[in-house]
Every structure is written in structure tokens, then in C-alpha cells.
Amino acid sequence: MLTRLYLSFLAAFVALLLAGAVRAAGSATVVAGDDLNDPAATSVRSRIEFDTPDRVRVQADRGVDGYLLVRDGRAYAVADLNGQQMVFDYAQTMAQFGGLARSLAPRSLVTDGRFVSLTGPGRSETIAGLSGRVWLLTTVNKAGHERRDELVLTADPRVRELTDALLATGRIVAKAFPELDAEANEQLAGELRKRGTGLLRIGNSFLLERLDPASPAAPRFALPAEPMVLPDLGGLFGR
Fold this sequence. Notes:
Elements: H1 2-22, E1 26-33, E2 43-52, E3 55-60, E4 66-71, E5 74-81, E6 84-89, H2 90-96, H3 98-103, E7 113-119, E8 124-127, E9 130-141, E10 146-154, H4 157-174, H5 186-195, E11 198-202, E12 206-212, E13 227-228
Parallel strand pairs: 6-13
Antiparallel strand pairs: 1-2, 1-12, 2-3, 3-4, 4-5, 5-6, 7-9, 8-9, 9-10, 10-11, 11-12
């Protein structure tokens, strides 16, 4: 009897270890823009795929023939130029082709405000079929301007994993934007981890539309070519 109990416990423990080894993977559809409640305002719908917080692929559904790929602690811009896929170091691409590089990184992945406080919880809200609670986030930017946004947070573990991937990507991408503080979202990330929550909505600027827990195929995070640096052809992209 004791041997059977021990083997049952061991099997359960191994199962938990295996579950932990494959967690933090999935994909989501998110929408980001200046004001998602305003039909006339510009918004971008993007597909976010991740298999760890350090391997993330972001692809807009329209207007951009390419995608952002984060892996090995670096961000890459993958673009289709004249029918050929090319890979560029994101930071270097920002310096040369700012408009193109920016278009590959949804606004939801970067922040220009440093964390001040997060208060709540308030009312309940359901987004993408997931239940969350409303919190109030206060931030202040480099110019000293304070801003308040509603956050809808959920304890759903899949959303927590997606949020970890988004925040990790934001830290890397923000380094390519001189006007942003690359560490600006660190304290917010810590507050979310402390509460065990993930993001469903940020004010009227970010919304989770759909979450798919299936793990993306490994080739989705492979570089299709060796990274390269092109000469300054900024005029080609309207810079």
C-alpha cells in the first residue's frame, strides 16, 4: 500500500514538473490604439504568439508586411522586401527606418509612464470570456505629467503568462525608443506578479480579444534568415 501511494505521489509530481516545463505558451489576438471606443481613431489588431516570455512573435493583421520577433534577449524586425524575407536587428532598424520598425511594435508593448500606484479592486468585468476586476493605474511620464488608466486584471494563469510575455517584449523593444524609459514597466510588472494577475484591458488603448492556449509550433520563433544591416535608405520608407 505504501509503495503504491509513493508511486502515485511520484507520478503526480512528475506530471506537475512536465506541466511546468511546457507552460507559458499560447497565442492571443489583441487590439491597441489611441481610443478603441472611437471608430474614427486608428487601431491595430495583432497576433501575439509565445512559448516563453523570452520567445515572442508579434504580427499585425493589416498594413504591415512583416513581424516583430523576440528571442535570446533581442528583438528582430522581419520584413518582406521585394518578395524576400529579411531580418534586421530591431534597435539598429529603429535608427535607420524608424517608421517601419515602429509599425512592427504595437503601442501596447511599450510605455512612456513610470509606475506610481495601482489601486483596487473595483467592479467586475468580463473580457474575451474571462472574468476580471477593474483597478486604477497611475503613472507619470518623463515630462512629469500624471496619467490614470483603468486596468482590468484577471487571475487566469494563461493571461498571466501572456502578460509576462508582453511585458518582457516591452522592456526589450523600449530600448530602441530614445524617448522611452526601457525600465518604466518594471515596477508595474512586479505589482502584477505580486497580485498573481494578468492584463485583459488597459483603458481604451489595449484589449484582449481572444486567447488560445495551444502552443505555437517551434518554427514560428525561428529567424528566417541571418540578421543584417542595410545602408540608410530611410527615404524609401518615407522617413
